[in-house]
Amino acid sequence: MSFGDPNNPYGPPQGQPPGYPPQAPPPQQPGYGYPTAPQGQPGYGYPQAPPVPQGYGYGVPQEMPGLVKTARVLLFIIAGFQFLAGVIIGIAAGALQDTSNAFGSGDESSTATGVIIAIALLMLGLGSLSIFLGVKFKTGRSGIRITTLVYSSLMILGSLANIVQGGGGSATFGGVISLAIGSIILSAMISGGAWFSRPRY
Q1: 193 CB contacts (<8 Å, ≥6 apart)?
Q2: Interior CA angle at 12 toward 11 and 14, to 5°?
Q3: CA torsion, ordered 184, 152, 78, 147, to nearest 10 deg
């Protein structure tokens, strides 16, 4: 068997003298006028995508802030007192009307009874609103925040009126408590904007 035979499958490739290791083909050169792109760099005309931030919801609060939680609890507490006040006022209005009817002056007291019943219905409506806002804190958007801002502002104004006109009595004490609760809720809505405007996935 001769190594010089061109048909020999065990011999060196054609054009290479025996006794030398096979040589790798030379690297291909780029065509004229087309520069070679550096290795690891994006191709021409295709900008590199920005890095993706690590973690889900990066930079967005995923848990309700503590002050917002406090405001939510206070709304539920206020709702309980409002429901209780509405029921007591409604019962008092009914008892007043029954007493007036017993003494034959039911027609004269019907207007006052109607006003008292309206106040009772107002308290029940405010209690329902407080419950609704507190429930919506978890999933609500900016509309819930704005509504709570207005609600707490009106609560503060009513509290100031009770303090001024209470004359140091029970109305003044209730106004101070309501003022403190309204101020906490208002502060929570001012500082908790990021929670209500967070993206939903």
Answers
A1: 142, 145
A2: 110
A3: -120
Q: How many Cα atoms within 13 Å fall on the side-chain side of residue 110?
A: 6
Taken in order 85, 90, 95, 96, is the CA torsion positive or negative?
A: positive
Quick one: residue 37, left, alpha or beta (phi over 0 = left, psi -120 to 50 = alpha)? beta
pLDDT tens per residue, range 122-169: 999 999 999 999 999 988 888 999 999 999 999 999 999 988 887 667
Which tokens hold the place of 31? 């065509």
Q: Which two tokens stand for residue 162?
A: 């009770």
For the stretch 51-83, pLDDT in tens is 544 444 455 567 889 999 999 999 999 999 999
Of 133, 142, 150, give the one whose Cα is nearest residue 193: 142
Q: Compute CA 10 distance to the chain's CA centroid, rounded to the nearest angstrom.
A: 76
Q: Cα–Cα distance between 100 and 98 in angstroms, integer?
A: 5
Helix axes 142-165, 170-191, angle to 10 degrees: 160
- Average pLDDT in the 70-99 region? 92
pLDDT band for position 180 (cuts 50, 70, 90): very high
Euclidean distance between CA atoms 153 and 148, whole angstroms = 8
